[in-house]
Amino acid sequence: MTTQTDILVQPRSPSRRLLATYYDLSADEIETHLRAHGGQPFRARQAEEWAWKHLARDFSDMRTLPAALRDAIATDLTFDPLTLERDFEADQGDTVKMLYRTRDGQLVETVLMFYPDRVTVCVSCQVGCAVGCAFCATGLGGLERNLTAGEMISQVIDASRRARARDRELTNLVMMGMGEPFQNLNETLKFVRSLNDPNRLGFGARRITISTSGIVPGIEKLAAEPLQVNLAVSLHAPNNALRDTLVPINKRWPVETLMAAIDAYMKKTGRRVSIEYALMKGINSNDATAIELAQLLKGRHMHVNIIPFNPVDLLPFERPQPADIDRFAAILTDHGVPATVRYSRGLEIAAACGQLRARHEAISP
Ligand code: SF4
Fold first, then answer.
1. Which of the residues 133, 225, 241, 356 has an alpha carbon 20 to 30 A from that of 88?
2. Beta bridge partners of 173
3. Which residues are catalytic?
4. How high is the pLDDT of residue 355?
């Protein structure tokens, strides 16, 4: 059971304890909280309506609640845990990257992408990341801390507001921002359940994709959950010698163990898993590697998303030439493995995860 103490965010400095936030609480906990301030259960339902359907920005927006009750609940509950630090647009405004400040001063990135047929938000689940993939800006500085479910929800609520401002609605959510969701599994699941709750955002689980670098126990736990979310696994290499150099956790859960976990996940859930493959020039992009990848995946009914690498200031990796990208994809499809090349959005705003935070910290006093 979640207690008031559990939901307090513990910053690095032990001298500061932050108030719980609205988005971190379940509907039952909101009711308990309002009751403690004299609010009837129907007031909790009103508050929920304001928070999730009208995307209120603060308690003061909840106009059907008595002002005295709004003031009372604000004394020991913060509404929104994130404050916008900056936002950046690219692709003629179709890609927007937001940089938020947490209440303990950390920076969190979110990307919102508008397509003709969908609107996708890419959410972060940690500040930094402990996995330390060789090609990733987020992993460079290690892990600062996990985000709470409320901090993940805040990213989605702001993205929803921005979509509505353009007469659109969010349609898809990917957990491919900063962090490894399976190293923050409890908060990630709490986040997904809140989104999925029809009385809250009512966001369909099938429109949510959780991406992992290959944390096998996380794949096993997700398989046991009754959630219909999509799973994407960032493979990036078809063999241990290469994957060890790109994704350090491969030494703990090597390719054969990871593939067995994916096979078991698909068998148990009946859901397909997609494979993410960041294509880097001269690293994992040659013909022999494509053939080896095809042999590994053939017959497994997995779709490969080939993501030509987004150059990062501090890292030595490069994007292959377009002809080499197309040839890699063609080798996979010729071997019966479906593959799609997906170019990252927002190159000019450093939209690959962790880049914007790293750059902002480098230039901020
Ligand atoms: S790619 Fe993902 S898992 Fe790897 S270091 Fe970056 S954020 Fe972490």
1. 133
2. 121, 208
3. 109, 353
4. 56
- Domains annotated for the chain, with CATH where assigned, are 4-73 (1.10.150.530), 82-363 (3.20.20.70)
318 vs 315: CA distance, rounded Å:
9
pLDDT in tens, 266-316: 999 999 999 999 999 999 999 999 999 999 999 998 999 999 998 877 788
User: Residue 359: its pLDDT value, please?
Assistant: 55
Query: 318: exposed, middle or buried (C-beta count within 10 Å: 0-12, 13-18, 19+)?
Result: middle
**CA distances from residue 302 to 125, 193, 239, 271, 340 in whole angstroms, order as listed:** 25, 26, 17, 10, 12
132 touches ligand 1 (CB under 6 Å): yes
Token pair of 139, please?
A: 């992993």
100 phi and psi angles, rounded to 5 deg: -110, 155
Low-confidence ranges of the chain (pLDDT < 70): 1-18, 346-365
Q: Probe ligand 1: pick from 213, 314, 355, 356, max atoms within 8 Å of CB?
A: 213
Cα-based distances in Å from 301 to 6, 293, 337? 41, 13, 8
pLDDT on residue 16: 45
